[in-house]
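Give me the fold.
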Amino acid sequence: MLTITSNNNNKEPKKVIWIHGRSHPSESPASWHLEGMIEQLLNNSEYSKALRENCIFYIVPFINPDGVYGGYSRSIANGVNIEINWDRPDSLTMPEVKVLKKTLENVLSKNNIDVFLNMHSQIANSVTYWIHDAKSTTPDFFRKQVLFSNLTINGNPYYKSEHQSFSAIAPRYAEGWIWNKVGEKSMALTFETPYTYYNENPTGEWVSIENLYELAKHSLYAISDYLLLNAHERVVVDNPIVSKQKLSLNNDSKIMFIGDNYIQSSKDNAKITYQTPVLKQGNYEVYKWIAGECKEISKNGENIWQKCDEINIRRDKKVKYRIKLENSGDKADALLFVRKSN
């Protein structure tokens, strides 16, 4: 297992992300995607440094190393598919799963796992997450999963809303096991790359190591945005100053909001001020999250980062940024500041 973090003296508790891959040995694109995530986590960019400062990543690239070495398709050496071995009695639980459970329990004894990702590749010619329905989990857990998926879709040429997948959560899978352990505390999903081409389009871009690395960048963006990280080059701000004017904080799980709540106005032309952490000198693009209905497939223009401004910061400083809600009933949620390359 790889542990990726920094030894900074951050007073705030670090977010914890667990990622494992290759339970099915034949799914090699998933390994290139995960390798892309690892390489980006380890580079010297300000963004990657911030991820290491604010997070602990526990990564198991190959949970079925014997199967990979042996060239099997979906099993370990004795023919068992460990992907669906998580709810078996101890006598029928494979050693690989026993080790993973023990390691996860050790991590959970110290910290919550905020994001849990199970990396795969699928026969369908598209990227997908397997999102667990509200009936088998809760409406708010469903919202968190679809939010994470939409954050991955945002600006991503390789993944579209219509290619999301949905199912009931099941204890035979790792996500079902972690759900039974901690419930809503861990946002757990299976992610799948295709083998061939993206977006069900054979005349479009085909899978390559280069674009799997690009896809990995979007996976990391989803993690940092979902966790509201101040990642230097990509800063999410979700601390609006709510005055006594007719504004209310809401957390209706039927709305796909970021963080703990969103703002709704009960009058026209309401103004909201956000306070950023220290932004480094440079040019920034500013985006606002357009919180819409929490549905399997979002309406056009909803549940996306929408660009609203460009600003220049001449010296390192905190910034107060104001937005206006033009109509009664309008919603406001998080802002995203993306530092542009020189």
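Helices lie at 28-42, 46-54, 65-70, 95-108, 139-153, 174-182, 209-226.
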